[in-house]
Specification:
About 35% of the residues lie in helices and about 20% in strands. It is an alpha+beta fold and about 575 residues long.
């Protein structure tokens, strides 16, 4: 995981080739300004800071690098062989070898073989040979990047289809355009800040940057009718995991003991043992309060797949200490994202201390297969499908935001095989009747969420107790008293008088509880512009389906609480 940053001057000619330019009524060094502002996200890439400034082109690019792949050759920003294309990129391109082969297939004999310096380096080579449109059709991975072509004076900015990797855009008082992986780099200098939308690209002159969607799968616009094929579903997820295992540094996997992370850890173990022998043991990690419900199941899975497992315990007081820091890192005031991000950050710190740089996780399955407990109350298949579409399209506001920023806060890269573009398209193209909760008969009869996914992995992947375990949301699974206490703690910091003014004080997404008000107070102190508040979308179940508005799974009627 890395951090990227760039500024494009509105009028490059005014700088006259000098690194000094007029900004906010005074003279500023573009190099120093960029280096200083990018330092606010240096936690994302603690291994190396690369900077390229080109005053003739009126731009600066910075990358804060976390070295995970091609460690010795992958430092950025990249410059093309002829010096005319510049790139700063964050992410992993999982099909970069295939893209490099395609580049070599059309290169002139005298040009020699193209050997990518890293997975992201292929973006330049492929763009030069095939253009922006073909690049975005072909690329697979999690990414956000900014590319500049001197020959055409065109800018290409793009973000992966789901928004696994964050990207923000800002405009300063002089009309200069800024891009950064984290909003904190922009808020001090840009009155207008917005989220760069997933599945979109900008391509053109810097003063005509309009977003254009390059990701338009059919399932976003019509209800699919294809029946589930369990063998194809299993093969698609296994292929996604294989692609996500390209790594040149120590790696591991999160293992909560829920279905999703357990499947990823199990598949990864099978793949790695084929590569390295039966003695290979995947490092796995779980987090929670002592006695939290997840630990029983994570140990069960660890014993079953033979992983080297570590339980990371935290106390409620330790968690409460991190509220402000988590809001600063994750850049949200959404209740469930804050609740979940605290144990995620604590776990990430421990994992990083063990020398791990890349971790696999199970985010995304609940959105694809309607795994949240409120989906049990979907009135019909059509509404179920459109709700899953909404959840997938909003992942970058919640689970992807948390998973990326809570780990990047300590220089750890998190990968999510369930959100591999090809797997997303496969899963979301299954008719909603097959993805809806269905009856499970195994000693008891009850409706079971993600039934089709469970059915696809009944053969020697997980213990039955985990394969058929009810969904337990992450912030619940770490220990039920965590949510109860953080809710009470946050509410105790807000008076009745202050809460009564919530709608007037915060007209954008007004908080509906004292807990939400408390998080919003902190967020406004850190990110004071109205445009920053507009970058947040709250995660709320479907109350019009008769569901509780509280995002905790325990508030839904089908939840089976463990004593």
């Amino acid at each position: 995981m890395c951090g990227i940053f760039s500024i494009f001057l509105k009028n490059p000619a005014e700088a006259g080739g000098s690194e000094l330019f007029r900004y906010g009524g005074r003279t500023e060094s573009l190099r120093e300004l960029a280096f200083r502002q990018s330092s606010k996200q240096r936690h994302r890439g603690p291994d190396y800071t690369g900077l390229v400034v080109d005053m003739d082109a009126g731009l600066v690019m910075v990358q804060e690098r976390l070295s995970v792949l091609c460690v010795k050759t992958g430092s950025q920003p990249f410059v093309s062989e002829d010096g005319t294309v510049l790139l700063t990129a964050n992410g992993e391109i999982y099909n970069y070898r295939q893209m490099a082969e395609a580049v070599n297939g059309v290169r002139k004999a005298g040009d020699g073989e193209y050997v990518p310096r890293s997975d992201c380096d292929v973006i330049i080579a492929y763009y030069e040979q095939f253009g922006a449109e073909k690049l975005m059709e072909t690329i697979r991975g999690m990414f956000a990047f900014v590319l500049y072509d001197k020959k055409t004076d065109h800018v290409l900015v793009a973000r992966d289809p789901i928004g696994i990797i964050p990207l923000y855009e800002g405009t300063d008082v002089e009309g200069n355009v800024w891009f950064a992986s984290e909003m904190k780099c922009l808020v001090e200098k840009c009155p207008e800040v917005k989220v760069f939308p997933p599945g979109h690209m900008y391509y053109g002159k810097r003063y005509k940057l309009e977003p254009k969607s390059y990701y338009k799968p059919q399932w976003m616009f019509e209800i699919p009718r294809a029946q589930a094929d369990l063998e194809q579903l299993r093969a698609a997820l296994e292929a996604a995991v294989v692609s996500h295992l390209q790594c040149d540094v120590p790696m591991g996997a999160l293992l909560s003991g829920g279905l999703d992370s357990s499947l990823i850890a199990s598949i990864a173990t099978k793949v790695m043992r084929k590569r390295h022998g039966l003695d290979y043991r995947l490092k796995t990690y779980s987090v929670g309060l002592i006695g939290g419900p997840d630990f029983e199941y994570s140990k069960m899975v660890s014993d079953y797949i033979g992983s080297e497992h570590t339980e990371v315990h935290f106390t409620i007081d330790e968690g409460l200490n991190y509220i402000r820091e988590v809001i600063q890192h994750v850049e949200t005031y959404d209740i469930t994202t804050v609740r979940c991000s605290i144990p995620m950050l604590l776990l990430s710190r421990f994992i990083k201390s063990e020398g791990i740089k890349m971790i696999l996780s199970g985010e995304g399955a609940d959105e694809l297969f309607g795994g949240y407990l409120y989906f049990h109350q979907a009135p019909n298949p059509e509404e179920f499908h459109w709700e899953t579409v909404k959840r997938v399209k909003n992942l970058h506001f919640s689970d992807c935001l948390r998973a990326n920023k809570a780990t990047a806060a300590v220089g750890l890269e998190l990968r999510v095989p369930f959100l591999d573009t090809d797997f997303v398209n496969h899963a979301m193209s299954i008719r909603p009747e097959d993805r809806m909760p269905q009856t499970k008969v195994n000693g008891t009869v009850r409706s079971m969420e993600k039934y089709v996914l469970r059915q696809a992995f009944t053969n020697d992947y997980l213990p039955s107790e985990v394969l058929w375990r009810q969904k337990e949301q992450f912030s619940d699974g770490v220990g039920y008293s965590w949510i109860d206490t953080i809710t009470e703690y946050a509410a105790s910091h807000v008076s009745d008088e202050d809460f009564a003014s919530a709608s007037d004080r915060y007209p954008i997404n007004p908080p509906s509880t004292k807990e939400a008000f408390y998080y919003r107070q902190i967020f406004e102190e850190l990110f004071p512009h109205d445009s920053c508040a507009s970058t947040v979308t709250r995660w709320v179940p479907r109350t019009d389906w008769g569901c509780s508005a509280d995002p905790s799974g325990r508030k839904q009627t089908v939840h089976l609480r463990r004593k």
